[in-house]
Amino acid sequence: MSRSRPVVVIINGPNLNLLGTREKGIYGDKSLENIIADVQTKFPDFDIISYQSNIEGELIDAIQKYGFSALGIVFNPGGYTHTSVALRDVIAAITTPVVEVHISNIHNREDFRRLSLLAPVCKGGVVGLGTYGYEAAVRSFL
Amino acid sequence: MSRSRPVVVIINGPNLNLLGTREKGIYGDKSLENIIADVQTKFPDFDIISYQSNIEGELIDAIQKYGFSALGIVFNPGGYTHTSVALRDVIAAITTPVVEVHISNIHNREDFRRLSLLAPVCKGGVVGLGTYGYEAAVRSFL
Amino acid sequence: MSRSRPVVVIINGPNLNLLGTREKGIYGDKSLENIIADVQTKFPDFDIISYQSNIEGELIDAIQKYGFSALGIVFNPGGYTHTSVALRDVIAAITTPVVEVHISNIHNREDFRRLSLLAPVCKGGVVGLGTYGYEAAVRSFL
Amino acid sequence: MSRSRPVVVIINGPNLNLLGTREKGIYGDKSLENIIADVQTKFPDFDIISYQSNIEGELIDAIQKYGFSALGIVFNPGGYTHTSVALRDVIAAITTPVVEVHISNIHNREDFRRLSLLAPVCKGGVVGLGTYGYEAAVRSFL
Amino acid sequence: MSRSRPVVVIINGPNLNLLGTREKGIYGDKSLENIIADVQTKFPDFDIISYQSNIEGELIDAIQKYGFSALGIVFNPGGYTHTSVALRDVIAAITTPVVEVHISNIHNREDFRRLSLLAPVCKGGVVGLGTYGYEAAVRSFL
Amino acid sequence: MSRSRPVVVIINGPNLNLLGTREKGIYGDKSLENIIADVQTKFPDFDIISYQSNIEGELIDAIQKYGFSALGIVFNPGGYTHTSVALRDVIAAITTPVVEVHISNIHNREDFRRLSLLAPVCKGGVVGLGTYGYEAAVRSFL
Amino acid sequence: MSRSRPVVVIINGPNLNLLGTREKGIYGDKSLENIIADVQTKFPDFDIISYQSNIEGELIDAIQKYGFSALGIVFNPGGYTHTSVALRDVIAAITTPVVEVHISNIHNREDFRRLSLLAPVCKGGVVGLGTYGYEAAVRSFL
Amino acid sequence: MSRSRPVVVIINGPNLNLLGTREKGIYGDKSLENIIADVQTKFPDFDIISYQSNIEGELIDAIQKYGFSALGIVFNPGGYTHTSVALRDVIAAITTPVVEVHISNIHNREDFRRLSLLAPVCKGGVVGLGTYGYEAAVRSFL
Amino acid sequence: MSRSRPVVVIINGPNLNLLGTREKGIYGDKSLENIIADVQTKFPDFDIISYQSNIEGELIDAIQKYGFSALGIVFNPGGYTHTSVALRDVIAAITTPVVEVHISNIHNREDFRRLSLLAPVCKGGVVGLGTYGYEAAVRSFL
Amino acid sequence: MSRSRPVVVIINGPNLNLLGTREKGIYGDKSLENIIADVQTKFPDFDIISYQSNIEGELIDAIQKYGFSALGIVFNPGGYTHTSVALRDVIAAITTPVVEVHISNIHNREDFRRLSLLAPVCKGGVVGLGTYGYEAAVRSFL
Amino acid sequence: MSRSRPVVVIINGPNLNLLGTREKGIYGDKSLENIIADVQTKFPDFDIISYQSNIEGELIDAIQKYGFSALGIVFNPGGYTHTSVALRDVIAAITTPVVEVHISNIHNREDFRRLSLLAPVCKGGVVGLGTYGYEAAVRSFL
Amino acid sequence: MSRSRPVVVIINGPNLNLLGTREKGIYGDKSLENIIADVQTKFPDFDIISYQSNIEGELIDAIQKYGFSALGIVFNPGGYTHTSVALRDVIAAITTPVVEVHISNIHNREDFRRLSLLAPVCKGGVVGLGTYGYEAAVRSFL
Fold first, then answer.
1. Per-residue pLDDT at I23 exceeds 90
2. For site-directed labelling of K58, which of G77, I66, K20, L6 has its Cα 20 to 30 A away?
3. What subunits make at least 3 CB pairs under 8 angstroms with A?
4. Which one of the listed residues L27, L51, L66, L80 is annotated catalytic?
């Protein structure tokens, strides 16, 4: 994995492949691909890699794959945010810092969404600032 | 996915592939295939599609696949009933109504089985009425 | 109580006498009498008996009266669902199986409505499928 | 129920028929009848109707009876304040506004008395101001 | 209510009218009438009055009726043990001491049966000693 | 503080200085000044003093100042209702009775608003009856 | 341990050796010795053995010693009622039935006294009936 | 408050005046003044106003002052994050959007720091990204 | 703040300015000034500084002012003991050790008074020993 | 699956493929392959099969595959220990006994790691004894 | 127990016999004997009696022995602080006041150490001030 | 305690002296003495010392006695597992590692048995593997 530019990996969890197709009032009408492309445009000095899966274990695989070499990981864990000890373990095990991103404000929804199991082992997080959250998270690795 | 008859999808989660082979006193001795075949027989005007997986993310994939075109989804989420925010999110995101089915009465077992994370976003549910629950759920889409 | 056709008793608890007069958007505009009449029409081989009371103890009386001879009891306990140990005791004491029915989805309302004290001693339940729930419950006794 | 003066109904729940006979240091020595008579005297332009029962379901009956025509209901639910979902349901179902009254301060007694199941569906409440609470509640309908 | 012998009232709550007819392995095969008759035989110097109702409010009425004149009240509140603040209030309001009786051991059943709302305002209680509990409670008034 | 007419102090806590300017649908369009003026008009025999602060400690100061001489204090503690042990302590320390007022119904909002830390040490309270609550509270001191 | 009369053992836990010397208003002025002597007098056909210790493990020893041969054990566990899993284990392990006795009403004291860890494995219990509780418990073995 | 450039207000709560002087390992060695100056430099088209107070009520005053005219408020509430209903109320009352910022990761500290009472009424938040959080929050108003 | 004698600061929180004027049975009849004077007399080698405020933020200011130079701080936080994360933060931030003092025994009052949010970051505490607690705390700095 | 030697299957869950590469201070520097090889060496009479996956559903598949024929299963469920009802269900459904193994002591880490959802349906468990735990578990099948 | 000087008893619970031998960084290197000797030196007018046991019941015995005659008891209950209702009962039963002492700050350790079951029945307590706590407690009896 | 062979001490808590005499279906029919003898046979190079007591404080004494010299301690704490902070403290204080053993699976019994207060300070534990657990624990010291 020898690359000339530093790598930042943007990993999206379950149902985020639906971005741009559902609930556009909340999430906007840009697809995940467009969002990632916009981020790449804003950070020409970074090599932005994007990965999405609905399968918890595949997200673990991806974090293991990049977690010892990338400069940073931006992670929107979707519904696994509140339930996955296994994702927490892999974030704690790797050496690359992870910034957690949520597009909407998870704090004004159901009570069980208020606590992220992952937040304590992440470097930090951005919540409720729309797709700008991805950009803000990448910028934090500068 | 243009079909002449309306589609109802029956999705079964983890361990339901064991139906008919284990704990026959509780679950009867019909296999999942036989159960689905019986349901198809009872509803000749519907196109009954059956899907089963033990993997949470594949169940999400299936619900995404059918959730914008089918008439209804009958979902027995098995052990993911009580733990999966990601399945809740996909049921909330799709436009097809979902009816939750449990073969046995989940309310007279361990306490942690009493609350379904999915129930609040489903249209309704049938619990404890055996495999008749699949039939009752399909009929609710009439 | 010697009858030629098997008896199924439909018992409705507090405030269900208001059906058809209040919140029609949720509950439809059919009165309880009309709903029962429709069920009787659908099951000509059953003798459908209907009882309603707002008084917890009278509901206990009714369940005692029919609970040792009827084929089945369909019970919509209304607000007593979540608070009545006494109703739970009578359901556990009788020999007739009871199926619990709720017209609306009690799982997407206040938290205290999510747990039914009665569900653990009922045979099963149907939730959120409208007045069709009464029909589905009766059919489960076939 | 066509009356010339607007009707306000004062409904009292369990054990309030003992007013004036027990614990006079707390509740005073006026009987319920005297209290209601005093209220009627203070509001000559209202037709004050009084009802008391120790039976939860009869209180539901009474609220159903007056709840679609009276100007207001003043309700002291006594011990059912903290346990009756069925009373909550009927208050939510009717169109007449309900004001909850407690003669003594329920907040400086046992913990389980601190939360009223009914308060969220009432218009408001008066607590701890003695029998003046009935008067204050009626006046709120002016 | 002028009687020559001191009065002890035995009040039984919901479903205790079924004694002797259900679950004989647990509750024995004596009817409530027989149990009371046996108690009367054991205490010839007392006038034993028996009352049973499935209706919470009627139990309140009965306790109000006897609670200012009887020597003692023996109360088996059945399923209302754990849910009735209104019964607690009436026991606290009367002057006659109340002894709570449960035929079976409520402590080795479901968790919600372990706490009696009434126990703190009763004089004491007898639990799990079968129908002998009624006798032991009456004897405590000697 | 020798005055000819008895003094009633109306103290308002955080954000109540915004009355009449925000959320008029809920709180009406009268400013706090106008509300107090109306109350003074209704009670010409009382000397109505009004105080408002957003600072918890200044509210404590005010309650200390008037709490040993005024006839009564009407207190709308706003957001400090649920969090201030220090305000509870000062209400318990003074000799003037305090009546707690909330303009809107705090019981049909978030769960954390349901319990008032202050209610147990107040004389009583009026909730959800709009600005009439101030009037009802003052009248309770008659 | 071959005895001609059946043996009933009365075991008292911590601080009950102080009976008759402290808080006489609650516990009366009879010493533990006197209480046991009175019980022996009332049951001449039983051999009443009395044991008291403040040490949890010695109470376990005593229950082991008598728990396979005595007719019954009457046990007042004092403060170990609410904390001792080890005492619960020994009661469950022996074959002699145990009846739990508390002199005062443990239900109107601190919350932590309301649940007995031992009650679920005892045959039954007598609470709040004073030293008569020992007699009532012994009589239950008749 | 007519200004030519749009105003963004950065409000800091208790103890943040100590920035740069304490725990430099965690918070860096820049004073609050320097941090604000850096932000102003990065956003020359905004008018950045800075306010700090240790007094909860003064923070409410400041949010009221700017909350109806500024483009955005960046708010680091410090220790009031977890305890202030009054601050939550003022954020809900104003029209300017608020972004909550925490310099360190509040999720890997004590449990009571995990839930922000303010987050549900803020637009969003940035946590754990150091003083870069202020910049990221301001940029979200672009 | 160069002083010849070592400085110990005694800081008192809300309502402690009422000492000597209220509830003398509990708190004695000495004013705060007298108490401090007595302490000064007992420790002639210390420079005892006293500060009191009802305002949480002013207490934070005071702790910041003395917290990097004084030998020790004796702090009676009054009602802020149980609610103030901001006071906890400042105690953790300073270098001077803090000893928490409560005049009465906070453990035999309401449940919410049993846990001090501040205790984990203080050096230690003295509770329930009356005004002697101030002396004991100062002496611990010897 | 007819084999001459009895089969013991060692199944490892998420992140255990990282053994030997991360946190060597805790987990040692042996890879999972080496650990399994060592176990095979110690038990020449067993056929040791090893399986690892990060995907919950694949672990269910594996347990279904071996769970009706193997002599025993040794299972280190990693982060799924605390969250997977579906894994619990499959362990309960199979006939092969399962012994749960954790390399490190899960009881001295975060609170949420203390309870294993799987433990109640396993035969037993070994915790905190390093990789020796695998050996001890296999030996238990002798 | 007639002595010329007033008696203060210092009772130490489980593991405090290890003082001076373990964790010297926290507890110092003085043995319990030395600590007591130092206290005796400081209070020549008192007769200081020291007792230590690891057995809960023996501590109860000791408190009973001295609890009706000594001037004061200083009690470090060690691990029984949080679990012993029986010790609480004996402290409540005796007439001698008890001051609870903990050498280290029990509030910055595990959560279960924060609440003392004994504190509500003690006169007061000293926490976290090292072995000086014994001296401060004794002095409080002056 | 100078011995030629390394010492491993097996300590058994309350009721384990009954092994082999009670509930043989669960615990087998070997006495504790036989179990220890078998272990000694399996580890001829160790000096196995066995100790049992029903008294919590004597178990503490024993752990203190061996806890600074033995190679390892195998501890089955019986019912004290879930309630003894004092045993936890002594295990934390000694230098010898402790392995916790439970013969039966404590995780499929009552809820209060699921958490061991001791586990966090032990090296590890073996649960549910019968008396083999003692052997497995001793072997872990090899």
1. no
2. K20
3. B, H, J
4. L27
Residue E4 pLDDT? 78
Q: Which of F13, F54, F57 sits opposite H61 (nearest CB)?
A: F54
Q: Which of I127, I132, I134 to mutate to test the interface with K (most CBs of K within 10 A)?
A: I127
Residue A29: its pLDDT value, please? Answer: 86
Q: Mark yes or no for CB contact B113/J85 under 8 Å.
A: yes
Separation of alpha carbons I31 and I17, rounded Å: 8
Q: Can you tell me the mean pLDDT for I71-91?
A: 98
Residues sharing a CB contact under 8 Å with residue L11, sequence separation 6 or more, in sequence order: L50, L51, L52, L59, L62, L63, L73, L74, L75, L76
Give the integer Cα–Cα distance in Å for C1 and E67: 40
* Chain L residues whose beta carbon lies within 8 Å of the beta carbon of residue G117: 112
Nearest to H120 among A99, A107, A122 (CB): A107
L7-136: CATH, from 3.20.20.190, 3.40.50.150, 3.40.50.9100, 3.50.50.60: 3.40.50.9100
Confidence check: pLDDT of C18 > 70 = yes
Specify the DSSP element, H or E, that contains F2: none
pLDDT of residue I3: 54
By C-alpha distance, which of B129, E18, E106 is closest to C63? E18
Pick from F121, F123, F128: CB nearest D125? F128
Cβ-based burial of J20 (10 A; exposed 0-12, middle 13-18, buried ≥19):
middle
Paired strand residues for B127: B102, C125
Beta-carbon contacts below 8 Å between B and J: 53
Q: Position I49: which residue type?
A: I
Q: What is the pLDDT of residue C97?
A: 98
Q: What's the CA gap between A87 and A80, in Å, rounded?
A: 8
Name chain H contacts of I83, Cβ cutoff 8 Å: 83
For the packed helices B56-66 and J56-66, what is the interaxial angle rounded to 10 degrees?
Answer: 120
> Which chain B positions have a beta carbon within 8 Å of A79's beta carbon?
84-89
Tens-digit pLDDT profile for residues F36-90: 999 999 999 999 999 999 999 999 999 999 999 999 999 999 999 999 999 999 9
Q: In the structure, what pLDDT confidence band is assigned to residue F1 with cuts at 50, 70 and 90?
A: very low
Token pair 């107070």 in the structure block, residue:
H53
Q: Annotated catalytic, G102?
A: yes
CB contact under 8 A, A125 and H121: no
Task: Label residue F3 by pLDDT band (50, 70, 90).
Answer: low
How far apart are the C-alpha atoms of B32 and B34, rounded to whole Å?
A: 5
Is 70 exceeded by the pLDDT of residue B23? Answer: yes
The answer to whether L104 and L40 have CB atoms below 8 angstroms apart is no
Return the structure tokens found at B31.
């296999």
Touch of A by I (3+ CB pairs closer than 8 Å): no
Interface with A, mutate which of B56, B59, B87, B91 (most A CBs under 10 A) = B56
Residue D87 · residue C79 · CB < 8 Å: yes
Q: How far apart are CA B141 and CA B45, in angstroms?
A: 12
Taking 90 as the threshold, does the pLDDT of residue I24 lie above it? no
Contact yes or no for B14 and J93 at CB 8 A:
no
Mean pLDDT of I72-77: 98
pTM: 0.95
Q: Please determine, for the modelled complex, whether the ipTM score is greater than 0.90.
A: yes
Closest CB from F57, F89, F117 relative to I53: F57
Subunit contact J17:A93, Cβ cutoff 8 A: no
**Tens digit of pLDDT for each residue in H46-74?**
999 999 999 999 999 999 999 999 999 99
| Cα dist from F36 to F9, F24, F51, K110, whole Å | 10, 17, 10, 51
At B112 the pLDDT is 93
> For chain F, what are the domain ranges?
7-136
Whether the predicted pLDDT of E3 surpasses 50: yes
Q: Do chains K and G touch (3 or more CB pairs under 8 A)?
A: yes
